[in-house]
C-alpha cells in the first residue's frame, strides 16, 4: 500500500483538456504573433490554479475569439463571454446581410 505523501502529481495542463490545449496552440499559430496570447493565457491561469473555476463557455470564448475573448472573460466572466458571443453573432449576421446586399445590387 502506497503512503499518501500529500504531494500533488497534477500537471499545470491538467486543468484544461488536451483538446483545449491543442485548439489553443493551433489558434495561436494561425494568428501568430498575437494569437500566442491564447495558450499563454491558459498557462498563466493553470499556473495560478484558476483554470478549474472557468466554465466551458469561458474557455472556448478565449480559444475562438482570442484577445477579445480574454478581455471579455477577465472583465465579465461567464456573463462577459455571453455578451461577446452575442456581439460576434450580431456582427456575423450584419456581414451576411452586407454580402447579400452587395450581391443583389
Automatic annotation (TrEMBL):
The chain crosses the membrane at residues 20-44, 56-77, 83-104. Keywords: Membrane, Transmembrane, Transmembrane helix. It comes from the Archaea. This is Uncharacterized protein.
Amino acid at each position: 500500500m502506497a503512503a499518501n505523501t500529500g504531494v500533488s502529481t497534477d500537471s499545470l495542463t491538467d486543468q484544461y483538456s488536451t483538446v483545449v490545449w491543442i485548439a489553443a496552440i493551433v489558434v495561436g499559430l494561425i494568428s501568430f504573433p498575437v494569437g500566442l496570447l491564447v495558450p499563454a493565457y491558459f498557462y498563466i491561469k493553470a499556473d495560478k490554479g484558476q483554470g478549474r473555476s472557468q466554465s466551458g463557455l469561458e474557455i472556448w470564448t478565449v480559444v475562438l475569439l482570442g484577445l477579445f475573448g480574454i478581455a471579455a472573460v477577465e472583465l465579465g466572466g461567464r456573463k462577459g463571454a455571453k455578451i461577446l458571443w452575442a456581439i460576434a453573432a450580431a456582427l456575423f449576421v450584419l456581414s451576411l446581410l452586407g454580402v447579400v446586399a452587395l450581391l443583389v445590387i
